[in-house]
Amino acid sequence: MKTTEHHLEEFTIERTGQAPLTFVGTILTESSGARVQDQEQNRWHDIAIYRTKAGRYVVFVEYRSTWKAEIGRCEVAIFDNPKDVVRGLQNYDCTSYVAGFPPLEAYRERQERLLKDIQSRFEDQVSEVLDMEVFEERAA
Q1: Consecutive 10-residue runs of the chain (140 residues): their mean pLDDT?
Q2: DSSP-based three-state secondary structure for 90
Q3: What global pTM score does this model have?
Q4: Coil, helix or strand for 93?
Q5: Domain residue limits at 87
Q6: What are the residues facing 60 on neighbouring strands?
Q7: Which terminus of the chain has fewer CB atoms gathered within 10 Å of its CB, N or C?
Q8: Is 51 a member of any domain?
Q9: Max alpha carbon distance in the chain (Å)?
Q10: Cα 89–Cα 93–Cα 99 angle in degrees, nearest 5
């Protein structure tokens, strides 16, 4: 879901294993992967991009799962410019916290399909949140 820049407000974002991050700024865009093509997902990412009052970019990525063996994770990265935001999202390992199937040969193909599906859905979300003029790449 794309949003437009509004008035400044204070945000506090939870981060796994760290103190919350508080800043003043605006939310530029966000996307939830909880539903895809009208189907609820049992593993997904939420992504949000903010611009701080000082002009920096805060990128929030949350991995969420309904599976008992998997624990969600909230991560935040701060970037100085739009190009670094793009690079950061493109380099983010969206499958690193996915436990998935038991590490047995019998489940290898199912695990590979699971990871490819999560990667594909995350890439679609990245395309969605980067579909703003500020992140547009221009050819010379």
Answers
A1: 66 97 98 93 97 98 93 96 97 95 94 97 97 91
A2: helix
A3: 0.91
A4: coil
A5: 9-135
A6: 48, 76
A7: C
A8: yes
A9: 53
A10: 145
Here the tokens at position 106 are 């019998």
Which DSSP string do the residues of 26-66 spell out, in sequence order?
EEEEEEE-SEETTEE-SEEEEEEEEEETTS-EEEEEEEEE-
Residues 6+ apart with CB under 8 A from 79: 56, 57, 59, 85, 88
95-133 pLDDT tens trace:
999 999 999 999 999 999 999 999 999 999 999 999 999
State the CB neighbour count (10 A cutoff) for residue 134: 14
Strand-pair partners of 31: 47
Structural domain total, the chain? 1
Local structure of 96: helix, strand or coil: coil
Q: Is residue 2 part of a domain?
A: no
* CA-angle at 17, arms to 70 and 20, nearest 5°: 120
pLDDT at 6: 61
DSSP state of 2: B
- Does some domain include residue 1? no
Residue 4 in any domain: the answer is no
